[in-house]
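for ur thesis appendix - DEAD/DEAH-box helicase domain-containing protein. copy paste whatever u need, i formatted it the way the template wanted (i think)
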Amino acid sequence: MWMIHFAVGYPYRYPELQLLAFAGPQRNVYVDDTTRRIQLYTDYNKNGSSEPRLKTLDGLTSDYLFYFVTVLRQMQICALGNSYHAFKNDPWMDVVGFEDPDQVTNRDTSRIVLYSYLFLNTAKGCLVEYATFRQYMRELPKNAPQKLNFREMRQGLIALGRHCVDSRFEIDLYESATSELMANHSVQTGRNIYGVDSFSLTSVSGTTATLLQERASERWIQWLGLESDYHCSSSSTRNAGDVVADEASLGHHQKNLRVLRKKRPREPKSTNDILVAGQKLFGSSFEFRDLHQLRLCYEIYMADTPSVAVQASPGYGKTELFHLPLIALASKSDVKYVSFLFVPYTVLLANCMIRLGRGGCLNVAPVRNFIEEGYDGVTDLYVGIYDDLASDNFTDRIAAWDDIVGCTFRTNNVKLGYLIVDEFHNLETEVYR
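the 3d part is after this line
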């Protein structure tokens, strides 16, 4: 309970912590199928309403909790034996599997509880009471000169999230407001700004609400340093496009080293940028195909990952995974991003340019223009073939990017964006590999 209480950084009311269940009709403990981290769907009934909150645990706490459920709880059940009957049927339990709930015995109830709820006092036949948890709060942490009660700890967690965690990361209005809602109070209560109190997680799409809450937990986990592989849009971490080569392995190839050191800039980004891009391209009814597609598109646009490989069946929408981030970058008014896309064969070139340029969302041109004449100051995306990518002339243009752009346009606001290799599985079959 202690680890779960602090792992996500956003406080619980005690009934939320007490009623965590890994099975049964009241189940609220799940495992994310991608990250393998445990997620908790908790809720708190305040003023007659209850809105679920998604809280994601760090990897270590997830491992402990998974071990507790799959190993320690099974050992506990074996130790208690088939005759264990300390729990009585209470109204808060949803008794399933019985035609007549009135005929359920204490033995039946005890078995249901053992296979459903996380935190139990098997000696008393009840869920872990607040007094029991409070006893540990008087003892832990051992080296703290002053121990806090549950309410004081809750307010402390809220303050840390607001003034320390969120201030370190580049977050937009929705993410900031989500942090307040994760604390189980309104934005007005948290910030005393009535003008944004209309925001709730029901005012955005379901996938967006999920992502906002996941990112809130990620910021806390990364701020504490619980996991090194949790990525957020942080001003203190590498930018999403930073790829620095190992000088020892490159040796005398200084020209290639300069190319690999090109950076994507750190201008503020928002999860809303992708949704706006989707609406520009597909209309106001745009939605992602599924949660995995949404997460991957946000990973490409916002995270620190230097490269992302995507493999999916035909028709899944792989092109949109980079098309939407390209449109989002092109919408930035304070900086001009220039990206490059390469396809295997010339026969694919014209169709690709038409497809990516539809709707007027992107200015698209052949990469040959860039190789022969340099950057024209207008194009958002240059499209070429693998041979263009492998040419020395292209490498020279990229290596001299900063000098040429600075002299030609007298500005530092023209920056390199993405390098996209489409149909990547063809790369190893040709001589230019």
